[in-house]
Structure formats: C-alpha cells, structure tokens
Amino acid sequence: MLVLTRRLEESIVIQDDIVVTVLAIEGDKVKLGISAPRHLTILRQELCEAVREQNLAAARHAELDRAGGLEAVRRLLLPEAGAKHE
C-alpha cells in the first residue's frame, strides 16, 4: 500500500485522469473530492462490501430456485420418481 500525506486542498493524481483532493478536515474525518471519468464506478468501501454481499445472497437464492425448478421438471417428466419421494 502506498501511503501519502496531503494537506487541505492538496491532491493526488492517479493515471492522469483521476484526481483525489482533500476538501476538508473536521476532527477525525477527511472529506475527499474525486474527479474521474464517468465510466468509472467509485464507491465507499462499506458500500462495495454491501453490494458484494447482496450479489452473493442473490446468487445463492437463484441457485436454490434453479435446483427447485429442476426437481419440479424431473417430477413432471418422471411421475413415478416424484411419487417415490413423496
């Protein structure tokens, strides 16, 4: 991890097209301004983690739905197999 020290209104530049500027320092909080191309998604870390968790939960739910759907199709195609399990 690269660690840099910046003062109020100082910036860092990332790959010529991303600029991060210290806008305010209030107690233990730092307000940053980020100038970047519109096609880049910029999220706070906690939001990124929340989105990742929601995506994983949705994928697990979809997998369960798919498994249940496959079982229903199996019962329709093989009625005797469904009767044995019930």
Q: What would you note in describing this structure?
A:
- The protein is of the alpha+beta class and 86 residues long.
- The chain is 47% helix and 23% strand.
- It has a 3-stranded antiparallel sheet with strand order 1-2-3, with no helix packed on it.
- Helix 1 (45-77) packs across helix 2 (79-85).
- The radius of gyration is 25 Å and the shape is rod-shaped.
User: Taking strands numbered 1, 2, ... along the chain, how are they ordered across the largest sheet?
Assistant: 1-2-3
Beta-strand content estimate? 15-25%
Relative helix content: 40-55%
> What's the β-strand tally?
3
**Low-confidence parts, pLDDT < 50 over ≥5 residues?**
none
Characterize this entry briefly:
The chain has 86 residues and is α+β, with helices and mostly antiparallel strands.
Q: Topology, pairings included?
A:
Elements: E1 11-14, E2 18-26, E3 29-35, H1 45-77, H2 79-85
Antiparallel strand pairs: 1-2, 2-3
